[in-house]
Write a structure and sequence with these properties.
The complex is a heterotrimer, with one copy of chain A and two copies of chain B.
Chain A: H1 2-16, H2 18-27, H3 32-75, H4 82-109, H5 151-172, H6 179-202, H7 206-209, H8 218-236, H9 257-274, H10 286-314, H11 319-334, H12 342-365, H13 374-392, H14 415-446, H15 452-457, H16 459-464
Helix pairs in contact in A: 1-3, 3-4, 3-5, 3-9, 4-5, 4-6, 5-6, 5-8, 6-8, 6-14, 8-13, 8-14, 9-11, 10-11, 10-12, 11-12, 11-13, 12-13, 13-14
Chain B: E1 2-8, H1 13-22, E2 29-36, E3 42-46, E4 49-53, E5 56-65, H2 67-81, E6 89-95
Antiparallel strand pairs in B: 1-5, 1-6, 2-5, 3-4
Helix pairs in contact in B: 1-2
The chains are: A mainly alpha, B alpha+beta.
Chain lengths: ~475, ~110, ~110
């Protein structure tokens, strides 16, 4: 393989610069070994450059998902809270950027214990000779030495993932949380909690050693965001008027289905960075193409699954459910996208779409008020996606040794499924209880919820002194 | 002088406006309102929960006119707005004490 | 016949509607309006500059009733809309000359 690449490179170089090549050969005639090593190094540089462009480009797509989250969440909430939600979704990426740079990265990828990193903890300052990979790598961020890109490319790509986990929380706690309390929680989540569970799976920690696999983060990113959001929803309580005295559910319709629609498509687009980008290298192109297809197929199946479920169960194809179904499919396929076949991705997405509708109804029954369905999408389907790998991991896409073992339906028995469940359990336990502790500490110190009167008037005025739609606009929901 | 307030189905606004202008009424104020009467609302579903929307969209037309025109205007509105189905709306007539055209300071019927 | 116009806090609409339906009133029109009275507006900030928003969002409720129902309706509205804080709103009562149901052309008290 290596020889073939070398030959191709020689050929390409010869084609590109025939004169230079000919002159050089005539003049000094360097030894063949020198020529080979020069070509080897320039082909290495080209590979690093190509992989770096790939990683940064897909990181850009994931960064853009912040737009999608902002639009989905503000669209599914009332206009009187629109400025507040957009503010939260905007500031959360800024907070994440600083938190993850200062501490998060080191905790997640630094060498240390099976539970968190210790070396190179602060500000990416640990020793590192990226883009060297494998045995050639000499540094403290060993667990991510499998990708041959510069350290800052690795950091930026991982940062946009951490930002995603934090922004998931925003939707679930919307329309009642104090702005400053949300900012504080986000800082702790991205600086400490997300990196710790991330270390367990992606930083060579104890779950990675147990054989738990998560390709692009159904657990590491989405269910972590979901568990943290669940803790927030429990600590906050429901919005005023969401549940009647005798437990009946009062729907609080969002103010712009157009925003929710655009936001969902932006997220769908962003996922083509999230999943294929998690290869952190283009390889021969085959795997990234496959991941594009599994990702898209699961999203499509999720839309159809949710639409059909809503249509059958609730009599009408609720658009907000169809949008949630798309996101559910995407969240579910995030973990197994590289290791399952395309037909399996249809099944995974379809089930995600069905699950999300039942989950929305279930959370309402449990009186857990999640205005945008973040728990149903990211938590429930983060868990489902992680488990689905244990069912569908396919020999065409994993050798069963250096990646996940074959799934239950492909002759691998229940080993991988049990491994996946172990991962779900520990990450859920830590993030839910850790999250509850952080939320209740913030509650004790400064409070979590805005005053009743402010909630009634809207957080836009109370928290920001601004309206999303000023001038002589009719008020909608008081 | 009288003030006529008519609550009608929104899609009937054009017809009612034309009918009024045919009898020489040149001015009116229109507001988008919500309301209900004998026509009850409908059920909507949002994220799995049913709820009743009582208030249906309607249009309110306000016209101030001289006493002699009131009967004709009511007739015109009723004819144009009628579909025969529940929810066609209502017309109310109020006494009006005074009217002033701001530009010219004209008062009374000259101002309407 | 009388017309009642009530200006209330928007989030009180459901309660007021329920209070009215309890005393048998089954029709009304609501409009989103803005206004102010003793409750002055609030201060907003836009890009560093403060400004006062005098007009606050309110809901205007309009109903036309037979004379005997007016007192009860006013009571129901006032009880349901009251929070005790400034800005609760006001109720006005106006005379009505005539009412017509468009669908059936019934007139007077039969029409309301």
């Amino acid at each position: 393989m290596k020889k073939l690449i070398l030959m191709l490179c020689c050929f390409a170089a010869a084609l590109a610069a025939p004169h230079a090549f000919a002159q050089e050969a005539a003049a000094a005639a360097p030894s063949l070994a020198d020529q080979v090593s020069a070509l080897e190094s320039s082909s290495m540089t080209a590979k690093v450059a190509m992989d770096t462009v790939w990683v940064l480009l897909t990181a850009g797509l994931v960064f853009f998902m912040n737009t999608g989250f902002g639009l989905v969440e503000s669209g599914l909430c009332r206009s009187k809270n629109c400025v507040n939600i957009l503010s939260k979704n905007f500031i959360v990426f800024a907070i994440s950027s600083i938190s993850f740079y200062v501490l998060g990265w080191g905790l997640m990828f630094g060498e240390g214990t099976p539970y968190f990193g210790l070396k190179g903890l602060w500000c990416l300052l640990g020793g590192d000779n990226s883009p060297a990979t494998g045995d050639a790598y000499k540094g403290v961020y060993t667990s991510i030495n499998w990708t041959g890109v510069p350290l800052e490319a690795k950091f930026f790509f991982q940062l946009v993932f951490a930002g995603t986990a934090a922004t998931i929380v925003s939707g679930a706690v919307a329309e009642r949380i104090k702005y400053i309390s949300f900012i504080l929680f986000s800082a702790v989540l991205v600086a400490v909690m997300y990196p710790i569970t991330g270390h367990w799976l992606w930083g060579g920690g104890f779950l990675a050693q147990k054989g738990v696999w998560d390709f692009a983060g159904s657990t590491v990113v989405h269910s972590v965001g979901g568990w943290a959001a669940l803790a927030g929803v429990i600590a906050l309580g429901p919005r005023l008027g969401k549940f009647g005295k005798d437990g009946q559910v009062h729907p609080i319709p969002g103010h712009s289905m157009t925003s929710a629609f655009i936001g969902c498509f932006v997220l769908w687009l962003g996922w083509f960075g999230f999943n294929p980008g998690s290869t952190m290298g283009v390889g021969d192109g085959k795997l990234i193409a496959h991941i594009f297809v599994t990702t898209n197929t699961a999203a499509a199946a999720g839309c159809i699954g949710a639409m059909a479920t809503a249509w059958l169960m609730l009599k009408k194809p609720d658009l907000s459910m169809t949008l949630n179904g798309c996101l559910a499919g995407l969240v579910a396929i995030t973990c197994p996208c590289a290791w399952v076949s395309t037909p399996a991705s249809i099944v995974i997405g379809l089930i995600a779409g069905v699950l999300v509708v039942f989950a929305v109804i279930m959370f309402d029954k449990l009186r857990l008020d999640d205005p945008v369905g973040a728990l149903s999408v990211h938590l429930v389907n983060g868990v489902w996606g992680t488990l689905s790998l244990g069912l569908f991991a396919h020999p065409n896409w994993t050798d069963g040794k250096t990646g996940p073992g074959f799934g239950l339906f492909n002759g691998g028995g229940i080993t991988q499924l049990v491994n996946q469940a172990t991962g779900v359990f520990w990450v859920g336990l830590f993030t839910l209880f850790g999250g509850l502790i952080v939320w209740y500490v913030i509650k004790a110190v400064m409070g979590l919820r805005v005053a009743e009167e402010e909630e009634t008037e809207g957080l836009d005025l109370g928290e920001h002194g601004q309206e999303a739609y000023p001038d002589f606009q009719p008020a909608t929901h008081g | 002088m009288k003030k006529i307030e008519a609550i009608i189905k929104p899609f009937k606004l054009e017809e009612v406006k034309d009918a009024l202008s045919e009898i020489g009424i040149q001015g009116m104020t229109v507001t988008e309102v919500k309301g209900f009467g004998r026509q009850k609302g409908h059920t909507e579903i949002y994220r799995g929960s049913e709820y009743t929307v009582d208030f249906l969209p309607k249009v309110k037309i306000e016209v101030v006119l001289g006493d002699d025109l009131a009967e004709k205007a009511i007739d015109a509105i009723v004819k144009a707005a009628k579909t025969g189905k529940i929810g066609d709306g209502k017309v109310f007539v109020f006494p009006m004490e005074q009217a002033v055209r701001i530009r010219t300071d004209e008062t009374g019927e000259k101002a309407v």
